[in-house]
């Protein structure tokens, strides 16, 4: 895992956690604006750092490493905590870490669901197929080009260098994490779920709707993490609670 920071340390802290097969670069478009109001901490998860021989083990392991980095750098409070897709699961785990407080939590396209063991194996097989194809023929178009045309080239490099162990663990992490029956929020604290109507993770909308103390934003016509990619300025306004 590696960390990048932007902005001035005296500003309120924003922690942005990327999706699977991405890196912290997926947030470049919003960091251009957000760095003027916040000190941004950008982790790149294990197995996602190019030329680093690391293995993704679990959501809990990643959240602990982020928390350890923050505490080591005397950061005990996060103003904005954003996690996209898999990053949202890790963000939720970090939100529950008692030594660090969080004001505003945003979970974008996060798959809070539990698949059967057989289905998880199928998903892992699909992920490994994409990774192996990307490593063998990075210039040849595959599913990543269709789903994420802006970031496909980088994503191929990232997943192409991953071990099968990391990909198996990533599949498990994505499709076994379930939300608790109740989400406790303190005063001056809020949590926002965000889903597009065209993404597969939209099936989680019925699950998160039951949390009356949380916000839910549904972006009609948007695919997975597409709001972030297509409307960075509007996305920043959302993060600043102007939605």
UniProtKB/TrEMBL annotation:
Record-linked SUPFAM superfamilies: alpha/beta-Hydrolases
Biological source species: Liquorilactobacillus uvarum DSM 19971
Name the UniProt record assigns to this protein: AB hydrolase-1 domain-containing protein
